[in-house]
Amino acid sequence: MSVENKIGTYNFIAEPFHVDFNGRLTMGVLGNHLLNCAGFHATDRGFGMINLNEENYTWVLSRLAIELEDMPYQYEEFSIQTWVENVYRLFTDRNFAIINKEGKKIGYARSVWAMINIDTRKPADLLTLHGGSIVDYICDEPCPIDKPSRIKVTNKECIAKHIAKYSDIDVNGHVNSIRYIEHILDLFPIEIYKTKRIKRFEMAYVAESYFGDELSFYMNEVNPNEYHLEVKKNDEEVVCRSKIIFE
Amino acid sequence: MSVENKIGTYNFIAEPFHVDFNGRLTMGVLGNHLLNCAGFHATDRGFGMINLNEENYTWVLSRLAIELEDMPYQYEEFSIQTWVENVYRLFTDRNFAIINKEGKKIGYARSVWAMINIDTRKPADLLTLHGGSIVDYICDEPCPIDKPSRIKVTNKECIAKHIAKYSDIDVNGHVNSIRYIEHILDLFPIEIYKTKRIKRFEMAYVAESYFGDELSFYMNEVNPNEYHLEVKKNDEEVVCRSKIIFE
To answer: Using a CB-CB distance cutoff of 8 angstroms, which residues of chain B are in contact with residue A22?
Structure first.
């Protein structure tokens, strides 16, 4: 199979309500676009959510790591490329490149996905899905950023709480993956966004939360440019963790 | 000028993170698309934000009213048409039609805009802008929904508070128009969205709010299907009002 068919390319424009006060695309919106591209790419090749839902399976995002040297500015066009790097029995690695209006790669992202049976919530064997055809799309396109790392948060002091509301909830009844990103970024004072930019952003999705759940946020400042965060629901179970590196 | 050039048509797909737990596009995302279409339409005709910013002017949204009999479902394609209905000295009326994947008009929207000088914040005379050329785009396409109405909220009991955060703020440093919609919809219990749908949604934008402002929300239940809402900043100035009619 040709590399062209293995890599999907999708075009965007940085919409005015999708940029922050600096005029730069927000990390939440970029995350949304990345996940959409994953969906488009998989659907076009027969293993997307729509195909899978009919067979009672769904993709579950486990990890996301984004590293950028620049962010598209308001009204700028940009594009995202995505491809499958690896397929294991229970996980697949999907990578992305973010390309600015001049065609320069300004960043990359890595994601790790599992597939589960909707009824049993048990993981599916990716190597037997559609006769293992997903393996045909594995592509050795370079993705020169670190893999998602282990994130450990030791601070026991809750710094913010949020009750999951209507706008947080997706079609599966869960708080959606993008909303966590927004809520986490909202923990920081505005000054940090005035003087620094996010160089690397990681999410580890651990468990689902639901409407009405009380989300509590914990943070370790590793150094003035690196923060590790944890979100728990109802002060018990860890829902997700995040690592943010500013520069 | 031909009607074709007066009406702009833009195509969308209901993305997975843009639908609510019912799988229907959220009112906030629809509002975002409407405002983007207004921008595309105006920019393509020489009176968009980008053109105006260079001349030190900007569009300010004053009113938005949306009325729908249906909402696009997840992954469905839909399109939005927009055109200028009227141009007055200080305001212009811009209307929209929302068209489902079968090409049926499932809803309409009306908006009212002013233009202000960025430095003085004073309103500009639309009839002299670009030699009054905006008037050439006036179009008598039907928009069979009521005009935005007066909204009056008498209840003095605050039902929720929200501190404006990083994710709320747009490139102008203001809480963005779409975030108000989301925060207002989040005031309602999930049950209402399980049993009813929003038939008509109105926003009246009165003043700007900024990062760190405390937004407080007031509501009158006119009847079990009609709610009038008001958002104040720092318990003083009215920022916006909204009317929601469920069915």
So the answer is: 171
Q: Does A131 lie in the same domain as A10? A: yes
Give B75's contacts in chain A (Cβ within 8 Å).
50
Do residues A221 and A175 share a domain? yes
Does residue B186 sit at the A interface (CB-CB below 8 Å)? yes
Q: In this complex, is the C-beta atom of A131 within 8 Å of any C-beta atom belonging to chain B?
A: no
Give the strands of the sheet with A198-205, arranged side by side. A8-13, A77-87, A92-99, A105-117, A57-68, A198-205, A237-246, A226-233, A214-223, A158-163
Instruction: Sort strands A158-163 and A214-223 into parallel, antiparallel or unpaired.
Output: antiparallel
- What are the pLDDT digits (tens) for B196-218? 999 999 999 999 999 999 999 99
Q: B21 pLDDT exceeds 80?
A: yes
Q: Kindly report whether the global pTM for this prediction surpasses the value 0.90.
A: yes
Tokens of A63: 């990890």
CATH classification of the domain holding B168? 3.10.129.10
Residues of A in contact with B32 (CB under 8 A): 15, 17
Residues A125 and A164 in one domain: no
Q: Which helix (H) or strand (E) holds A70?
A: none
pLDDT reading at A133 higher than 90: no
Judged by a CB distance cut-off of 8 A, whether residue B58 touches chain A is no
**Is residue A146, in this structure, part of any structural domain at all?**
no
ipTM surpassing 0.90: yes
The 10s digit of each residue's pLDDT in A43-67 is: 888 877 667 666 788 899 999 999 9
- List the domain range (segments joined by +) for residue B211: 158-246
